[in-house]
Design the sequence.
């Protein structure tokens, strides 16, 4: 049996920004205000349709709490791309987004030594209080070399599928996937949830 080829995507950002909600909404779960904070790491497997082919992704939901920092090098290993999430209503999470971006650049690269592509998601855009103007986010994204950014809402299921499809298209053009490994040795073994998802905007 041939191993499935996959791209590992790490989803990171400060605690409470909605990383778990974004992943669960993308995989078809209803929105909930009662998700517990991720402990260590969890991941799901999804398939995105790009140019009539199925692109398989593993979305790794990395805990935002600082006390799990020592494990991040292990969790980041062999990543194909990263998604940095911040809460558009909380200025401090936007300021911390650069720390998360720099952490990825420092800890992980593609097999050819090139930094992994990083996408920025400004989550909770359904809320009326937007602490960071679009222009500031645009300038931040350009300065820090995020290849794309989106305003998203896990509650309203806004722009999440569009962002994931954009990510899949980007990595397909630039990377060759690797066989899925069953040998991850993690302190907190993730729960595997397999889903099939067709790409496209779900505003």
Sequence:
């Amino acid at each position: 049996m041939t191993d499935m080829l996959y791209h590992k995507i790490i989803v990171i950002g400060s605690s409470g920004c909605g990383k778990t909600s974004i992943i669960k909404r993308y995989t078809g779960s209803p929105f909930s205000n009662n998700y517990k904070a991720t402990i260590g790491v969890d991941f799901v497997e999804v398939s995105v349709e790009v140019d009539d082919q199925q692109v398989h992704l593993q979305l790794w939901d990395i805990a935002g709490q600082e006390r799990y920092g020592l494990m991040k090098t292990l969790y980041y290993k062999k990543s194909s791309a990263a998604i940095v999430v911040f809460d558009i209503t909380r200025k401090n999470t936007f300021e911390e987004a650069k720390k998360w971006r720099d952490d990825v650049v420092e800890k992980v690269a593609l097999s050819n030594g090139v930094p992994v592509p990083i996408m920025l998601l400004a989550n909770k855009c359904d809320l009326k209080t937007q602490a960071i103007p679009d222009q500031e986010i645009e300038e931040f994204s350009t300065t820090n070399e995020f290849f794309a950014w989106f305003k998203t809402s896990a509650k309203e299921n806004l722009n999440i599928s569009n962002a994931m499809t954009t990510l899949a298209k980007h990595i397909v053009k630039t990377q060759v996937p690797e066989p899925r490994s069953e040998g991850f040795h993690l302190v907190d073994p993730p729960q595997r949830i397999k889903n099939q998802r067709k790409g496209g905007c779900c505003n």
Q: What stands out?
A: Confidence is low (pLDDT under 50) at residues 180-203. The CA atoms of residues 24 and 80 lie 20 Å apart. The two ends are 38 Å apart (CA to CA). The first strand starts at residue 5 and ends at 12.
